[in-house]
Amino acid sequence: MAFYDQQFKILEVPPIVQELVGAGVKEPPSQYVLPEQYRPAAAAVSEMPEPIPIIDLSRLSAGSAEEFDKLRSALENWNLFLAVGHGMEPSFLAEAMKATREFFNLPIEEKQKYSNIVDGEKMSMDGYGNDMVVKENQVLDWNDRLNLLVEPESLRTYRLWPTQPPSFRDVLSEYTVRCKAATNIVLRNMAKMLNLQEEHLVNMIGDNSITLAIFNYYPQCPRPDHVLGLKAHTDGSIITINFADAEGLQLENNGWS
């Protein structure tokens, strides 16, 4: 927890992107504009050589040898897959997405109650805001985000958990539980692939591991060909579950797709 608890000195507090759009900007501010060679229109995007693999977690949990082999292939060749049979009903996922949208649609004064800026010059890992500006000429992502530590539960900073909409906290808590169940199915099968005891990875990670919920909001940009919603990156987590509500997600697997 030592690293996550730290607050980081920032050079400036970037503007809230949603507010820029609401103010009717015609051009994104310079700190959001990518050098020409890195702009989406200039980036080489190739067709996927094959569809992203689909894994049915319910069949995997039931011990399907076919699904186990599909998971092995997906991890060896893609490092990702589309999960189905995860036990989260469409109605629940719709409720989770609705609560997220309602938070970002709140007035700025309400959202700023959960700001990640501390004393005007430091930024915490938890809270509402956007990029951490730590160097000159840093290109910022065209998004606003809410970061929340959700596990271990004892370390949650509830003062930064939105109370509006009223369903937000309960939905996020339930979503966390369900994601952990799905994650553990994958970890158990990964352990079997490595000829380890089935619970080895689950126990190794344990109940005190850090789990983050990161909500990214991408307001419409007047010059979408000049910005990126989220820059190219590699997640530092063991497993990332991506619940997407937008087109345009790109991944690199022997070339961008």
Task: Provide a descriptive summary of the structure in words.
Pfam families: 2OG-FeII_Oxy, DIOX_N. Keywords: Iron, Metal-binding, Oxidoreductase. GO terms for molecular function: metal ion binding; oxidoreductase activity. With 257 residues, the chain is an alpha+beta fold. The protein has a domain at 28-113 and 146-226: Jelly Rolls (Sandwich), CATH 2.60.120.330. The chain contains eight helices and eight strands. It has helices at residues 2-5, 17-22, 57-61, 65-77, 90-104, 108-111, 168-193, 200-205; strands spanning 7-9, 54-56, 82-84, 117-118, 122-124, 127-129, 144-151, 211-217. The strands form three sheets. A three-stranded antiparallel sheet has the order 1-5-4, with no helix packed on it. A hairpin with a 3-residue loop joins strand 4 and strand 5. Helix 5 (90-104) crosses helix 7. The mean pLDDT is 88.
